[in-house]
């Protein structure tokens, strides 16, 4: 009896891990999200929400006309001016940024970052990825099926609100970094630059690393293999298809990669 139970543990653990990857628990709105949404002008921004194709929820964040700044906006302007950078007048937009959240994140997680970017001359476009936030999609594919979304919502936002979509950059964190690399590889990709923060090289290596840190090298390898098998059956996507490093040689725009030595989810190596 005990032996039969032990045999069931690896498949069950693999199924649960695959379920977490394919259908991550959605992060609800936080108190600081609600505070920002209730009074965006206090943060120096105007918010323009809309739903894009396939119901993708989008927030367009623009600086308040006339140069009103929030606390964070004033701090970042002071810091950049101290470094010798010449900034546009507050309230003026010089370009656009599409901000792509990470796993278990949502577009509102970027509001405080958007406040800073808006203060120095950017319009920010924030979106919910499938299986996250308020997006009606239920499956996360770590960029393999989401790579078209950033350019799509940029185009839709520009058409809806009547602004020039160029120049534009893309900024993605963790899973959002993988989506951003896929976005940069799309045909006629519009990006002038890409910023990738705490993202991964290959998803299967991240899963193997996490499994091994819990269960040891040999058992972790078995666990990650089972996880990949279940993930493919839930999503129709091989987990190893989320391979950012293989796409890097094809990137045509300038890229900044930032990571942390204390990242325990995606190791800096």
Number of helices: 8
Largest sheet: 7 strands, mixed
* Percent of residues in helices: 25-40%
CATH superfamily annotation of the largest domain: Alpha/Beta hydrolase fold, catalytic domain
Give the radius of gyration: 20 Å
The CATH topology of the largest domain, please? Answer: Rossmann fold
Structural class based on helices, strands and sheet pairing: alpha/beta
Please tally the β strands and state the result. 7
- What is the first-to-last residue Cα distance? 42 Å
Architecture (CATH level 2) name of the largest domain = 3-Layer(aba) Sandwich
What amount of the residues lies in strands?
15-25%
Q: How do the SSEs run, as a string of H and E?
A: HHEEHEHEHEHEHHE
Number of domains: 2
Word description of this protein:
- Helices cover 39% and strands 15% of the residues.
- It starts with a helix and ends in an 11-residue tail after the last strand.
- It has two domains: 174 residues, 3-Layer(aba) Sandwich (Rossmann fold), CATH 3.40.50.1820; 39 residues.
- With 269 residues, the chain is α/β, with parallel strands linked by helices.
- It has a seven-stranded mixed β-sheet, sandwiched between helices.
- Helix 1 crosses helix 8, helix 3 packs across helix 4 and helix 7 crosses helix 8.
How is this fold's topology laid out?
Blueprint: H1 2-22, H2 31-38, E1 45-51, E2 57-63, H3 71-82, E3 95-100, H4 111-119, E4 122-127, H5 149-161, E5 168-173, H6 175-184, E6 193-197, H7 203-215, H8 217-235, E7 255-258
Parallel strand pairs: 3-4, 3-5, 5-6, 6-7
Antiparallel strand pairs: 1-2, 2-4
